[in-house]
Design a protein that fits this description.
The complex is a heterodimer. Chain A is α/β, with parallel strands linked by helices. Chain A has three domains: 127 residues, 3-Layer(aba) Sandwich (Rossmann fold); 122 residues, Rossmann fold (3-Layer(aba) Sandwich); 151 residues, Nitrogenase molybdenum iron protein domain (Rossmann fold), CATH 3.40.50.1980. Chain A is built from 17 helices and 14 strands. In chain A, strands 12-11-10-13-14 form a five-stranded parallel beta sheet, with helices on both faces. In chain A, helix 16 links the parallel strand 13 and strand 14. In chain A, helix 12 packs parallel to helix 17. Chain A is globular and about 80 Å long. Chain B is of the alpha/beta class. Among the domains of chain B are: 123 residues, Rossmann fold (3-Layer(aba) Sandwich), CATH 3.40.50; 161 residues, Nitrogenase molybdenum iron protein domain (Rossmann fold, 3-Layer(aba) Sandwich), CATH 3.40.50.1980. Chain B has 22 helices and 14 strands. A six-stranded mixed beta sheet of chain B has the order 1-12-11-10-13-14, sandwiched between helices. In chain B, strands 3-2-4-5 form a four-stranded parallel beta sheet, with helices on both faces. The longest helix of chain B has 29 residues. Chain B is globular. At the A-B interface, strand 1, helix 1, helix 2, strand 3 and helix 3 of A face helix 3, helix 4, strand 3, helix 5 and helix 6 of B. Strand 1 of chain A pairs antiparallel with strand 3 of chain B, so a sheet runs across the interface.
Chain lengths: 461, 538
């Protein structure tokens, strides 16, 4: 057994996290910053943070994840990181020449209280920021929230630094804040909006950055990413649609306050109903017709669900991951007549518990749901030991539980280190819903084929 | 691709430095050396990373928890700090381990952390740490717990060592702490040193039980990535060599406690573990030998050295028998891959030893290393230990504790007399020596310490090597530039590459990479021949 020390006896823990269902803020900020075109994310702390984040993102995407660090030494940790950051800014612009540097902090620089805007000012007055080059920042103390919080903070900074309401005239465009989803998902959201005839500014946008085509030529700054020019126009957009309350909500609200752009905060469009709400919101706020092609995509997903419902009905599922994903995913599973009985996220948030309660509250099954302190994969595994599930949905770390308990695993969320597909094929929108359902069905049917007696081995399923 | 290049290495060096601001160029210039064996060229190493330059390096915590302490399966590691550090070092290093039975402890699949919150940063984290240790004890009942400090712990002044002592008394198990905050030192290297110190202080020598065997050794600096240690263990077993403990791969606490009963220490990764070898020699009288089990010839050489050290004809005979059993398969594979790989070029930028060791394997398959360097090494890893007295200790290294070690009054037992050592040295056995990487590299090859992303791209552009060896952060950037990249930290989830069997694995892996047909498809047909010559008349 790989997790041989996990017993079914649940002990009260108040201080020790075992096998976390979250990681720290800065990696979220780094991922978000990679979604700006020509941007170098910069980690203001010791170099290990940056190395760990780049490694994790690279393992997940099998793509280069470029980022720089202030490389704090003990001296910098005592006397402050100003000299390191100013030197880094000079070196980055000179050597790598990005359009923009997006600085995020770490627990180290937050604990010593480095004032980033003041240091940026210093770099500017020292002439270390070339003409036309930009710097933005956000605070991402690792001891608050989780990786999701860091993502939300960097996205909000894009608004704080760039959004302008220029002429006062509204542009015929909508801001879409896609939340922490994959490049393929951002691409699919853009495609769907395009199909609806909606002009969008989507930010951040990691498509074309972390799913780059092989050309034989490495680029520091690939073609993709939202441009600063586009970000500046977000203040003149007709509306903002924030997908995912936790990851996208703060930026949308900030944009409303700053530039008076009304916002709709929706769930991530994962599954049929959440995608319906996304499409319908676009329709309502823009007074447009939903094209037949989109309704057809919906119909195909619906058709697939009806055709295969017998295999998902009453299947018990354990899920772990990030709040925005879990809310939408749980809703989709309920729609498939599945039973998301264990739901865990390391990211704290009372609202998450309320949202989940709303999604599964009327269901016949009893669920264990936990968020924040003490909500880790070890606890979820203990629940599973007490009463088994039919399916696990979550990141790669679930493979240890999957093997020990002989329960199939659908890889979903962050990080996925051991399979490909998530970079290239979306799970959002109707087509994404079909892919998600396909993945779920395949593991369940494979399991039936493996476990059933020979006489009931089915050719047609 | 040919080794011949229009640019001389000195010109290449100039090219690499051109873009840097003057101050950075001056600094980097000292880390780039045109090799000339025998000329004792000095290289700058183990100095501060240039901020913003995109180094390959990680931090002190990674070197301590991730590298040295992590691979021992029954020492429970608790990361004291915010959640990230514990999360990123969770199972990402591929240290394989094989507990004796299904019920023997193995904590390596678990990541435990105090997940510090803002209130602990403000009011201190000692209380939470104590409670976490109690909870860990309740959940796992380990014999030993290691506490690893992350950056904020040192800044807010939590006394992790005091907590360890107190909890050790309370729970009656061995609990010790590492002040391995990420900002210490200039790379992972500081973490190796800190880990060595604490393991030596708190584990080594706790159990005097001696195994009844003739040739007792420890293997130091072997981390069992991809099962390398399993291959080496098998060779030892077949030769009748008793392995007390490996620091640290497929290792357990008991072996570490008894490691001082060995009669010889073999050092694989000199950088990460030489402190342990030195301290064990001083305190217990165990000599050490630098060996390399990467490469078939190197493996044979290492095994012969062991036999020579123990001055045993029967051991020498067994060693020869094992070599004779293993070599034919290696030769067959070698001849096969040479037909496709001979003359091709490689670059290696990795670790503190592997950039040296793996040159052996490339040599055995007829490939040439044109440039190499370490990520976190010191000058002695490049130039040899003879330079140790002349290395200046700077402010960043001064704060890493040097333990004052003396001979153990009861247990110090020189395994060899001074005369014996002298005689062995006269026979050419380099006891307690390491000559470093540079003497083994060709004249005019480029040796570069702490290579950064920009320099890497330039090297790829100028030399277009057939294969480039580095880590996960570099892997896809190199391949996007059209050059296959072999990860030599994680082995690209393959291996083992140690010993004779490992050599064969490596030969075929590199053969696959440098001769794969996929690289010829990078250009689409219409990019190769954009001119339309004949077309349909429409």
């Amino acid at each position: 057994m790989l997790l041989r020390h996990t017993s079914s006896e649940v002990q009260q823990r108040g201080a020790l996290t075992i096998n976390p269902a979250k990681t720290c803020q800065p990696i979220g900020a780094m991922y978000a910053a990679l979604g700006i075109h020509g941007c170098m994310p910069h980690s203001h702390g010791s170099q290990g943070c940056c190395a760990y984040h780049r490694s994790a993102l690279t393992r997940h995407y099998k793509e280069p994840a470029m980022a720089t660090t202030s490389s704090f030494t003990e001296g910098a940790s005592v006397f402050g990181g100003q000299a390191n950051l100013v030197a880094a800014i000079n070196n980055i612009f000179t050597i790598y020449n990005p359009d923009i540097i997006a600085v995020h902090t770490t627990c180290l620089s937050e604990t010593i209280g480095d004032d980033i805007p003041q240091i940026i000012q210093r770099a500017e007055s020292d002439g270390k920021i070339p003409e036309g080059k930009l710097l933005i920042h956000c605070n991402t103390p690792s001891y608050v929230g989780s990786h999701v919080t860091g993502f939300a903070n960097m996205v909000k900074s894009m608004v704080t630094y760039f959004s302008e309401s220029g002429s006062g005239k509204k542009l015929n465009q909508v801001n879409i804040i896609p939340g922490w989803v994959e490049p393929a998902d951002m691409r699919e959201i853009k495609r769907l909006c395009g199909e609806m005839g909606v002009k969008t500014v989507i930010f951040p946008d990691t498509s074309g950055v972390l799913d780059v085509a092989m050309t034989g030529k490495a680029e520091h700054f690939p073609k993709g990413g939202v441009t600063v020019e586009a970000l500046k126009t977000t203040g003149d957009s007709k509306a903002t649609i924030a997908l995912g309350e936790v990851t996208s909500g703060p930026a949308a609200k900030a944009l409303d306050v700053k530039c008076n752009v009304p916002c709709e905060i929706l769930d991530l469009p994962i599954g049929l109903a959440a995608t319906d709400r996304f499409i319908d919101t676009l329709r309502k706020i823009l007074h447009i017709e939903v094209p037949e092609t989109v309704t057809e995509q919906r119909g195909r997903l619906l058709d697939m669900i009806m055709d295969t419902q017998q295999y998902t009905y009453k299947k018990r599922v354990a899920l772990w991951g990030d709040p925005d994903q879990l809310v939408a995913l749980a809703e989709f599973l309920v729609l498939l007549d599945m039973e998301p009985v264990y739901i865990v996220t390391g990211t704290p948030g009372k609202n998450f518990l309320k949202r989940i309660e709303k999604v599964i509250g009327n269901c016949a099954f009893k669920a264990e749901v936990k968020a924040g302190a003490g909500a880790d994969m070890y606890l979820m595994h203990q629940w599973i030991k007490n009463e088994k599930v039919d399916l696990l949905i979550g990141n790669t770390y679930g493979k240890y539980i999957s093997r020990d308990e002989d329960i199939p695993l659908v890889r979903f969320g962050f990080p996925i280190f051991d399979r490909v597909g998530h970079q290239y094929f979306p799970t959002v929108g109707y087509r994404g819903g079909m892919r998600l359902l396909e993945m779920i069905l395949n593991v369940l049917l494979d399991r039936q084929d493996r476990d059933c007696p020979e006489e009931s081995f089915e050719l047609v399923m | 691709m040919t080794v011949e290049n229009e640019l001389s290495p000195t010109k290449v060096k100039e090219e690499l430095l051109k873009v840097f601001p003057a101050k950075v160029a001056r600094k980097r210039s000292k880390a780039i050396v045109v090799n000339e064996p025998g000329a004792s060229r000095q290289i700058q190493a183990n100095t501060r990373t240039v901020p913003g330059i995109i180094s390959m390096r990680g931090c002190c915590y990674a070197g301590c928890k991730g590298v040295v302490i992590g691979p021992t399966r029954d020492v429970l590691s608790i990361t004291h700090g915010p959640i990230g550090c514990g999360f990123y070092s969770w199972l990402t290093r591929r240290n394989q381990t094989r507990p004796a039975s299904d019920t023997d402890p193995n904590y390596m699949t678990y990541s435990t952390s105090t997940d510090m919150q803002e209130s602990e940063i403000i009011f201190g984290g000692e209380k939470k740490l104590k409670q976490a240790i109690e909870e860990a004890y309740e959940a796992f009942k380990p014999e030993a717990i290691a506490i690893h400090s992350t950056c904020p712990v040192g800044l807010i002044g939590d006394d992790v060592h005091q907590v360890a002592r107190e909890m050790s008394r309370q729970l009656g198990i061995n609990i010790f702490a590492f002040s391995c905050e990420g900002y210490k030192g200039v790379s992972q290297s500081a973490g190796h040193h800190i880990a060595n110190n604490q393991v030596f202080k708190h584990i080594v020598g706790r159990d005097d039980t001696t195994v009844d065997a003739k040739f007792r050794i420890n293997l130091l600096g072997e981390y069992n990535i991809g099962g390398d240690a399993f291959v080496i263990e098998d060779l030892f077993e077949r030769c009748g060599i008793e392995l007390i403990c490996t620091f640290c791969g497929n290792s357990d606490y008991e072996g570490m406690c008894r490691s001082h009963t060995a009669d010889l220490n073999l050092v694989m990764c000199h950088r990460s573990i030489n402190y342990m070898a030195d301290m064990m020699e001083t305190k217990y009288g165990i000599p050490w030998l630098k060996v390399n089990f990467i490469g078939a010839e190197a493996t044979a050489k290492a095994l012969r050295k062991i036999a020579q050290y123990f001055e045993s004809a029967s051991l020498a005979e067994k060693v020869e028998k094992v070599i004779a059993e293993e070599m034919p398969a290696v030769k067959t594979a070698q001849q096969d891959v040479k037909t496709r790989c001979e003359g091709k070029t490689a670059m290696l930028f990795v670790g503190g030893s592997r950039a040296h060791h793996y040159q052996e394997l490339f040599r055995e398959m007829g490939m040439k290393t044109i440039s190499a360097g370490y990520e976190f090494a010191h000058r002695d890893d490049y130039e040899g230990r003879d330079v140790l007295p002349s290395i200046k200790v700077d402010a960043d290294s001064r704060n890493i504790e040097e333990l004052k070690i003396e001979a153990d009054p009861k247990r110090y037992r020189p395994r060899k007399t001074k005369e014996q050592i002298k005689a062995l040295k006269a026979e050419g056995m380099a006891i307690g020596e390491y000559k470093g990487m540079m003497p083994d590299m060709d004249k005019n090859s480029l040796v570069i310490d702490d290579l950064n992303h920009y320099e890497m791209e330039k090297l790829l552009e100028i030399y277009k090597p057939d294969v480039y060896c580095a880590g996960i952060k570099e892997k896809y950037a190199v391949q996007k530039a059209g050059v296959p990249c072999k990860q030599l930290h994680s082995y690209d989830y393959g291996g083992p590459y140690a010993g004779f069997k490992g050599a064969v694995n490596f030969f075929y892996e590199i053969d696959r990479m440098v001769n794969s047909r996929i690289w010829s498809y990078v250009q689409a047909p219409w990019q190769q021949r954009p001119q339309l010559e004949v077309g349909y008349v429409l």
